[in-house]
Amino acid sequence: MKRLSLFNVVSLTIGFTFLYLPIVLLVIYSFNAGRSVAVWGGWSTKWYGSVFENQQLLDAAWITLKVGVLSASVATILGTMAAIALARHGRFHGRTLFSAMVYAPLVMPEVITGLSLLLLFVALNIDRGFWTIVLSHITFTMCFVAVVVQSRLSSFDRSIEEAALDLGCTPFMTFFRITLPIILPAVISAWMLAFTLSLDDLVIASFTTGPGATTLPMKIYSDVRLGVKPEINAICSLMVAVVTIAVIIASVLTKHQEVERERAERLAANAP
Amino acid sequence: MAKTPQTQNRRWIVTAVPYLWMVIFFLVPFFIVLKISFSNSEIAQPPYSPVFDFIVDGWDEMLDKLASLTTDNYLRLIQDSIYSSSYLSSLWIAGSSTVMMLFIAYPIAYGMARAPKSWRPTLVMMVILPFWTSFLIRVYAWIAILSEEGLLNSALTWLGVIDEPIQILSTNTAVYIGILYSYLPFMVLPLYSNLEKMDDSLIEAAKDLGCTQIGAFWRVTFPLSLPGVIAGCFLVFIPAVGEFVIPDLLGGSDTIMIGKTMWEEFFNNRDWPAASGVAIALLIILMIPIMIFQTNEARQQEAGR
Fold it and tell me: What ipTM did this prediction achieve?
């Protein structure tokens, strides 16, 4: 039986304090009545009020949200297809190049991805703006989707799929009836990952954007460069809250599904 | 089951669609960057020449344009010391923060792997959660902490450690803190997933054969966790070399990193060919680490099957 030693407890405590303290401080100071970032001037929610009166911020938030939902959805479909190709289709022609193209963007510096996509759009003479950001976000997030889904695909029992095929399902039906329900939690968390990566991106969006399409990170970045403002603390705290709630809901949902699945498996095992 | 030609077709589509997408939006752009890195900077729209037009251009025109390509951008990369010092300081900052990260992340991952089984999903969740909140926000949070009238200086003054505020923001120290903080999950998670799978009986056996606790760690646990160490180190090192946001917001004017140099070349000087040259050179430098990372990942994937 493993037991946590004192060393383990101390390193976990320090580690998690390091991870969370800055975010907690940020949220606390978003309620600071004073303008200063360090001197506490009493509790206030006035900065949240001024966020909702700032039309530029709200517009940027709306664009970011649209980009996120659109790009995450397409990236989830493309990334899942890529994962199936890598996990199920064995050795096809050009597989090495394909897997290289799927893994490379995970570590590719964003400045390179951003620049190369911009130059592609210029070369193709595409007007830059909302849609070029969407295309770019699909491209770099689908790789994360592929990796998440592939790791789920490679850990499940393929004989169920083979059984479905033997019983006369087409590969298409097998995917929707057998494979997809099993990998669904991974697909959902991959969507969430793609969505938050898109919400988060400053560098690639800055390169590929055009007139009229300012995303929230771009707006925050230009404000931060002018100095720390309490409104930024407020908008950041709101984003932290949204993401935290979404992640908690997703984890409860997948947990629920796991429990259901385990129960179904037990029932199936006990069936005469 | 006999595969009909139709089902074979559908299988082919599943691979072809993402394949084609990545070729168009990932592979082709690199060749465009490569081409533009050999172009001349112009005050025009687009700000480089020559511009190839495969439909309008005749054969001769094409050859003329090819002849006007130049290696000036690369010569400048070698001659102008701003570039070489950017590359060197990026590699140095990324490399040393990767090593520091290993020392911070390993104890955390080890603690997580030894925690009771029922806690582990929650612990993993807690490591991932800050990663889901915006990168920009996490860097921004440190500005308020590290600035001269910031929380850290106030706390240290209050505790009597320092008499007057020390400058941390706008120094390389702040850049290190930013990288260590932002990339911590990238190191902890691969280490954890490796350590978690490890068979405890191996350590028991080492101890039975006379190893001390620390000896068993160095001789058994650490060597077995090497794939996780490699994955984590490269997941931190490669993006950190090209990092832009952290040196820009936390670093000072003397913090030069290649991502920042390229950004300034592109957005401030509007010199697209020079920026492309910087990007290509960065890519060449990162080629070897990226290939090591991919081989390691592929091996892990095969082993996982």
Answer: 0.84
